[in-house]
Amino acid sequence: MNLRGSNAGAPPATGSSTGPTEVGASLAANIAPEVTGFAREVGDSDPVTVVGARTHAQVGGESTAGTREVQAPAGVWEHEPSEMTVRCGAGTPVAELVVHLAHSGQMVPLDPVDDAATVGGVLACGFSGHRRLRYGHVRDLVLQTRHVDATGKVVTAGGPTVKNVSGYDLPRLLVGSLGTLGCLAEVILRTLPVPPAAQWLVGVGDPFAAFDLLYRPSSVLWDGTRTWILLEGDPTDVAAETAKVEPLGFGPAHGGPTIPGAGRESMKPSELRALAGTPGGWIAEVGVGLVHRSEPVAAGTIAPTNAALMAELKRKLDPEGRLNPGRSAW
Question: How confident is the prediction for the chain on average, in pLDDT?
Fold first, then answer.
């Protein structure tokens, strides 16, 4: 099945490109009219920021007053189930993408706290979902991006298929940059099969002991008292994994916990044990080291060398500082 959107028959791609040359039939053979229109909106002067559903508006601070707002194009434009890729506008709500891919038994495990979030918003914030333990960081799902740079040009980076060629990985650089290096317009994402079985478990047993017993759980979430475990895969495997932790006091649950969204804190996975007995209002991802908190978390510090590197990238890609001014991605 090849589902094509309104970009069919668009003119040949123009603008700059990084990454491997596209050979033969490609999901990204043309630049959609929506993308070129978005580039005109972004333009080449005055401060500008991309807004979506505003579900992550608090991340990185607020844009400078007077910054012009634009919206990225939306829509699932092409889906190649056999290639396990999907092409969509950055402004597409995650919920819409989930429904579209489900018809083919596929998914992209973005898993935002709020499904109203847009694909571009999740990527710009670099927020991996609660199933990161199994599926990895959200940046690993991105194959190709099209963004509008500070001069108003459409830039294509990465490759349109899973069998990609190594090179300058600008798509990974854009993930988590909060739109300060480029305005995401379109992405090609790697899809995965929807697991045939999924089961949440809950209990008050030792989350670290449970983690050590299990093989590739999708989530082990702990609030200091209770632990929720998500198992996905073949029904036989899910049943076998469930049996491993039943002696620890874990049993079936109808779903996982509500994950706080006010702040996030990164810790070494081995340091999470120290959270035991601390005030509530948090959910920790065991095995990952991420702690979700119900209160804002002060920004951490990064090494001076890394800060200097990011500042230099910003100067090269946005010398006038017009892209999302006021927001800080590092």
Answer: 88
pLDDT at res. 299: 78
Instruction: Enter the tokens of residue 310.
Output: 């990011």
On whether the CB atoms of residues 232 and 218 are closer than 8 A, the answer is yes
Tokens of 258: 């509500």
Instruction: List the structure tokens of 11.
Output: 């003119």
Closest CA to 89 of 146, 50, 137: 146
- Does residue 178 contact residue 326 with C-beta atoms inside 8 Å? no
Picking from 33, 129, 64, the residue whose alpha carbon sits closest to that of residue 326 is 64
Question: Can you name the residues that pair with 232 across neighbouring β-strands?
Answer: 198
Q: Are 91 and 72 in contact (CB under 8 A)?
A: yes
Rounded to 5 degrees, what angle do the CA atoms 86, 194, 72 make?
Answer: 30
Confidence of residue 125 (pLDDT cuts 50, 70, 90): very high
Give the DSSP letter string of 301-318.
Answer: P--HHHHHHHHHHHHHH-
Angle at 55 between CA 329 and CA 184, to 5 degrees: 55
- pLDDT greater than 90 at residue 221: yes
Whether 22 shows a pLDDT value over 50: the answer reads: no
Does the predicted model carry a pTM greater than 0.90?
Answer: no
Phi–psi pair at 204, nearest 5 degrees = -110, 15
Among residues 193, 264, 190, 200, which one has the least CA distance to residue 27?
Answer: 190
| Nearest Cα to Cα of residue 76 among 66, 89, 67, 57 | 89
d(CA 173, CA 158): 11
- Residues 53-106 pLDDT 10s: 887 777 777 888 999 999 999 999 999 999 999 999 999 999 999 999 999 999
Q: Rounded to 5 degrees, what angle do the CA atoms 266, 271, 272 make?
A: 75
| CB 76, CB 92: distance < 8 Å | yes
Q: Which amino acid is at 107?
A: M
